[in-house]
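Can you give me the bound-state structure? Components:
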Amino acid sequence: MSAPFQGEGLLLVIAASSGTGKSTLCQALLHTSPRYTLSVSYTTRPPRNNEQDGVHYHFVSKDTFEQMIQREAFLEWACVHDNYYGTGRSATEDLLRQGYDVLLDIDVQGARQIRKIFGNQATLIFLLPPSWDAMVQRLVGRGTESQEKIQRRLQTARTELPAATEFDYIVENDALDEAVQTFHSICRSERHTAKRMHAHLQAFLQRIPSP
Ligand code: 5GP
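Here's the bound-state model for the whole set.
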């Protein structure tokens, strides 16, 4: 696999179990600042009623997806609930290069791959539901999945939730506004790590006149 590009924008991984309100949070973030952009993933899952190709996902066949794996077209990819999902490498790298803070709405397996490739250059945030019951209610309430698929997602959640300890931050999604504010605070801090401020500091030091 070729070396990753390390751009100027933040690479922000947001993982959560189904029914936590991850998509709602991502949409809210996109509305609050033009700095954020969402990486549109590729998937072999069929589109749901309200989903548009190129907006919610790039919907592709299994063949196309497997060819893309061969071409190393993904930054990361995973098989989730029998379907492939992957983050397009070039589009994501372009966005980072342009200085956007890029949101990756991906699962725990994908988050681990991003950590492996980008190390601490990526910020991993786990979104926690206010309670197990609230998560189940939300999952059932949205009415997009059959009973069998809901059970499958709950089973996945049981293994995903303990993995939150591997992330840099855990944000509880109880009140959406609060979660958005917490997220902004995290991003603000991440932009000011000594590592990220290195170039700025060097430029400052060079301008100090000789004694
Ligand atoms: P859904 O089918 O509900 O849209 O997504 C199912 C799961 O796949 C969610 O946890 C979602 O975050 C994850 N997912 C979506 N896109 C990607 C991706 O590009 N890579 C990985 N690893 N997971 C993804």
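A couple of observations. Strands lie at 11-15, 36-38, 42-43, 58-59, 74-80, 83-88, 101-105, 122-128, 169-172. DSSP finds eight helices and nine strands in the chain.
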